[in-house]
Amino acid sequence: DIQMTQSPSSLSASVGDRVTITCRASQSISTYLNWYQQKPGKAPKLLIYAASSLQSGVPSRFSGSGSGTDFTLTISSLQPEDFATYFCQQSYSAWTFGQGTKVEIK
Amino acid sequence: EVQLVESGGGLVKPGGSLRLSCAASGFTLSSYSMHWVRQAPGKGLEWVSSISSSSSYIYYTDSVKGRFTISRDNAKNSLYLQMNSLTAEDTAMYYCARDEEMAAMSHFDYWGQGTLVTVSS
Predict the structure, then answer these.
(1) Looking at residues A48-64, what average pLDDT do you find?
(2) In angstroms, what separates the C-alpha of B75 from chain A's closest C-alpha?
């Protein structure tokens, strides 16, 4: 099974900050990597698919990069509505999620 | 508008069974693979099971193999998850999700609001 490890598990940031979240796969997954945002009490929302493709309707301040085993999600200028938990997901072999990164207000 | 609406959750005793349903609307269900994903209280997301558009391919996470059965009825625009021999570790919010799978890149573009399953005596 492919394991996904996110870092950090949580972070505190201010509105306007640039935020980067990292996801590492236990083996190479090419670009079979997706990112989701989840707010409390809500279902996850797809942000990025295939490592770097922005889902329709998602603001351009979100971007993804990486291939192989190392991936990043970047929020270029954090907005109040971006405080949430973010999950990476591999779809190379079955489907596995990272443990999540909670982005909190500093 | 694409909508996925889960139902069938509730409180069940250990060893009991439940059948979850996911009603799809706003798109042609028969064109998409579908998944069940669960989230234990305060925990992360766990993929549970998937079924291809024509039910030809079915997959389960190891912890539910032999206990859960995924199925679909495209004519009724519905996805199901039959859960047997439930344990406390199955307590979670259960989401159904659509797989957009563009250029063989699988990703879950629409999710339901979830249905809560609680296994407790």
Answers:
(1) 97
(2) 26
B105 vs B92: CA distance, rounded Å: 27
Q: CB–CB of A51/A64 below 8 Å?
A: yes
* Partner A contacted by B94 (CB < 8 A): no
Mean per-residue pLDDT over chain B, rounded: 97
Decide if A95 and B107 are in contact by the 8 Å CB cutoff.
no
* Numbered residues of chain A with Cβ closer than 8 Å to any chain B Cβ: 1, 31-32, 34, 36, 38, 42-46, 49-50, 53, 55, 87, 89, 91, 94-100
Burial track A14-27 (b if 16+ CB lie within 10 A, e otherwise) = eeeeebebbbbbee
Give the type of residue at A67.
S
List, for residues B49-58, the tens digit of each pLDDT value: 999 999 999 9
Look at B107 and A87 and tell me if their CB atoms are within 8 Å: no
- Could you read off the pLDDT of B59-82 as tens digits, one per residue? 999 999 999 999 999 999 999 999
- Predicted confidence band at A15 (pLDDT cuts at 50, 70, 90)? very high
Contact B108, A34 (CB under 8 A): yes
The average pLDDT across B13-39 equals: 97
Give residue for tokens 């909508």: B3
- What residues contact residue B45 under an 8 Å CB cut-off, 6+ apart? A36, A38, A44, A87, A89, A97, A100, B37, B38, B39
Element (H or E) spanning A90, and its range?
A: strand A85-90
Task: Name the 3-class secondary structure at A27.
Answer: coil
